[in-house]
Amino acid sequence: MRLPKHSIWLSALVVATGTANAADWSAETSLSESLSIDDNPDLSVDSPGFVFGSLSTLDLAVSAKTHRSKFDFLGSIGYQAYTGPGNDVVENGITPNAKIDYERNSKRLRLQAGAYYNLVRNGSSEDSTGSTFGGGYRSTAGANVSLTRLLDTQNELTAAVRGYSIDFQNPTPSDTPSVSLGTSLSWLHRATKRIDLNTSAGVDWYRDDDAINSRNTVYYLREDVTTRVNRRLKVNAGAGVTLLNRHKDDFALPGTPRRSSMELGGLANLGFSYALRTTTLGGFVSYGLSPDDDGELQNNITVGLNGQHKINDVSDLTVNAQVRFAETSGTSGFNETTFSIGPVYTREITPYWHFSLGYNFNLRENDEGTAIENSAFMRLKRDFVIVP
């Protein structure tokens, strides 16, 4: 399988770590094998049938620390193979992923930078003639840099620059490659020992490689409050405004200037985390304009809940649930609903052997109908320490 090229992003982050001699290095690797079953692998209204999958993965984690800097690398490469009645909508192949993070601190400055790349299986779709498109892969690569200035013990300013690109191999008709660049400035004020205020403003540019040559710019201003009610409960809330400037070609009147429009919107979020002795609970609700996994800008409302319970010293149970209402068509009103929930059980067999068992339920409802997916997996992982 030919892998997409994203060297423009991964080569954009070449950071002089300065940790060659005095750094405390560590490196670990792991091998894992996952077996899965999925009754609707592309989450379509008409399921193509069951798919049995196998994923073999090699992971590598490298870190280096000094008294002023920290460097972390996480990388993995896996091979996915599928069989079963629904095998026509999925594709065997290699799935590489990589993430780099770097941080350097001085007395009043903190520099943080990162880059990432991931390749995941993309869904397929069928047109009016019955021809199947897609079933390939979606690749995402991005980078970010931020510089924080500590003004005093209560205040700090942060300037950030970020960007990402999304590309597709064997895309569906609705898949659109896109690029985004953004910058922001934020002010963190520690009002009390329990309350933090964060004011931020920024702009994000989006360019889509579609038929109408879409170019979108989003300006935003928001205020967030985080409060530690007690040692167990933490609550955060935020609100803001957005201004969306859309530009696109007008095919109805060739040769005329590009069409543009302005839309004023809002942002809001509320979340919490609550920690007990063996259980941690969390949740959030958010509203606003944001890109989906494929880079398409959408107004959406998202509600999520999560919980983690420590059964004993070697096993845990985690449950995540999320529902999302999205305005996918660009018109007023939410026309797509997605819901997912899934428990995962993990157990440490020995300090180097780990076992996981999980299930996931997905639902998507839009103008095409209702699609339901059930999937389950079992995973066995072995860790190896290269540099302790």
Give an overview in words.
1% of the residues lie in helices and 69% in strands. It has one helix at 7-10; strands at residues 24-38, 51-65, 69-83, 93-105, 109-121, 124-126, 132-134, 137-150, 155-169, 178-190, 195-208, 215-228, 233-248, 259-275, 279-291, 297-310, 315-327, 336-348, 353-366, 369-387. A hairpin with a 5-residue loop joins strand 15 (279-291) and strand 16 (297-310). The chain is globular.
Brief rundown of the structure:
The protein is an all-beta fold and 388 residues long.
Topology at a glance:
Elements: H1 7-10, E1 24-38, E2 51-65, E3 69-83, E4 93-105, E5 109-121, E6 124-126, E7 132-134, E8 137-150, E9 155-169, E10 178-190, E11 195-208, E12 215-228, E13 233-248, E14 259-275, E15 279-291, E16 297-310, E17 315-327, E18 336-348, E19 353-366, E20 369-387
Antiparallel strand pairs: 1-2, 1-20, 2-3, 3-4, 4-5, 5-8, 6-7, 8-9, 9-10, 10-11, 11-12, 12-13, 13-14, 14-15, 15-16, 16-17, 17-18, 18-19, 19-20
Total beta strands: 20
- The percent range for strand residues is over 45%
**Rg from C-alpha positions?**
23 Å
Distance between the termini: 35 Å
Question: Structural class, from secondary structure content?
Answer: mainly beta
Share in helix: under 10%
Characterize the biggest β-sheet. 18 strands, antiparallel, barrel
- Total helical elements: 1
Q: Which series of helices and strands comes N to C?
A: HEEEEEEEEEEEEEEEEEEEE
The averaged pLDDT comes out at 87
Q: What is the molecular shape?
A: globular
Task: Please mark out the parts with pLDDT under 50 across 5 or more consecutive residues, or reply none.
Answer: 1-5, 7-20, 124-134
